[in-house]
Amino acid sequence: MNIRAQLTFRYIIIVLLVLFAMYLYLGTALKGLLSDRITEDLEVHAALTREILIEKLPPKDNFTYDAIDSLVDRLGQTSPARLTFIDIEGIVWGDTERDGAALRAMDNHLTRPEVQDALQFGSAIRDRYSDTTQTEFRYYAMPIYRQTSSTEAADLIGICRVALPMETVNTAIGNLRQIVLFASVAGLILAIVFSIFSTGVIIKPIEKLTQMTQSLAAGRIDSRVPVDSKNELGRLSRNFNLMADRVQGQIDQISEEHRRLETILTNMGEGVLLVNGAFEITYANPTAISMLSLPETHIGKALIEINRIPELQALLQMTEQTEAVAFAEIRLGNITEPEAEITVVPVAAGEEYVIVVHDVTKERQLERIRADFVANVSHELRTPLTTIRGYAETLLNEDATQTKAQEQFVVKILNHASRLSRLVSDLLELSRLESGDVKLKRTPCHLNTFYEPILDVFEPILEESELVLRWNIPENLPQVSVDQQLFMQVLVNLIDNAIKYTPDSGEITVSAETRPRETAEEPNTHSEEIVVQVRDTGIGIPMESQSRVFERFYRVDKGRAREMGGTGLGLAITKHIVLRHNGRIWLESTLGEGSIFHVAIPL
Ligand code: ADP
Questions:
Q1: For 453, phi and psi rounded to 5 degrees?
Q2: DSSP state, 153?
Q3: Beta strands in 492-545 (DSSP E)
Q4: Residue whose CB lies within 8 A of the most ligand 1 atoms, among 496, 533, 549, for a mutation test
Q5: Is there a single domain that holds both residue 125 and residue 16?
Q6: Are residues 156 and 29 in the same domain?
Q7: What pLDDT was estimated at residue 265?
Q8: Which of 142, 332, 396, 532 has the least C-beta neighbours within 10 A?
């Protein structure tokens, strides 16, 4: 049952109850009132009749049927009531309902209850069935007294009785009931009409609201309800409209942001892929589709099923385990496929992963071309340089030079040629390391094995510049697995720099220790590493250059470095060698006080 029917139904029930109560109350109240009125009428009638009878009745001994009945009939003509006169013996002398023989044949009325009551109490009222007329009557009886002389007491001469048939009373009550019933029915109809109208006032706005919310739910976000009142329902409608405005505003905003994001994702050079916890694709932008050669129906498919790149799967699994961003450079298939930097970012606690694929094929190609070019040029320069140096040395040795000036020129040629060939061999070394052509020949050894060879290299120069080299590596240090030749080069480069950039009579200290290994990528591994430190009391490196000294050709003071015979490649080569050993290199330095280079190699 809808609200309207419920409300109407309740209204009608209430009205029915009220009307029923009214009908009952009015029925009884009016019945009492009417019957009182009738009784009063009878009383008045009886009193009037009695007065006339007292006056007009013949003396008691002269009672005749003719005289009294005609008197009674005359008196009765003025009202619908039945009038009877009974003498004190109970004989009925006059009655409006009986005449002649019928009157004479009437019973003795002395035993009638109203007559008895009237004689006993002065007046009486009775509703009872009349044997004479065979109908229900209301009787009112009064005794009639008459004074025969002024000295004597009044004589009772008879009873005056007035009666109205009950039918009259009942008809009046019936009429009244009918009126009340009619009023009730009219009230009911009015109530129904009113309830339909008044429920309509409430229901209509609610229906409109319902329709609006239905169309909102169906996605027609621009639907609104008309607000045509200021009452509670009007306010409710207005609030609904406001709410819908808000929702529409937010949806518009979200759609706009979605559209923007979609445009960015569609047009960006990087491939973006979303996979769920089961590594099934939930989104792929056009770049990702083309880079990973995804089929048209890729949504919902497991990535491994449509793109068999084990490295990518491994990267995803690693991200799943560590719940941290993972990064790798992967070739997306065979040699013809692009090379890509892939970043996997876990989202929402491992329930989703964002994979960003950045094509680096071109960069890598350019790097290779550049490296190849450098290697080729260096290689091509080697032979002519050797020839130049050979001839210059020959010129010097064979004393073929004519003058001092010529000799100086030849020495200069030799020096520059040597510098150039150092540069060329450094460049070649760097390209070899970068290309990955160098295979590490790792053998376990104690760091002290490097002491003798180092001393062989640097002893003359140390003596010359009055520098002290302290070798502080404890004997009980564990062995470290390194490519001895390359690691020797690391130590040589670092000590060479320390000597170059430390003024005479300074001090260079080489020390080493083991430490627990804690790197950013593997925060919880409990392995150890050996850290070698090369410390000098030299000129130091300014703060802004500290992060750049490992770049190739970077020199803090170009003139000085060149003067020192540096190529600007030493630290770049050193860093490459350390990285090939999975190690780290970093420095601490204070300008004017000295520098410390740290090299960490995992054990
Ligand atoms: P170079 O062959 O010029 O020494 P490196 O790559 O070995 O090239 O070093 C790069 C630059 O770092 C040097 O030119 C120098 O300015 C600075 N440098 C390296 N080691 C030290 C050091 N121990 N003290 C001060 N400066 C240094």
A1: -55, -40
A2: P
A3: 507-516, 528-536
A4: 549
A5: yes
A6: yes
A7: 93
A8: 396
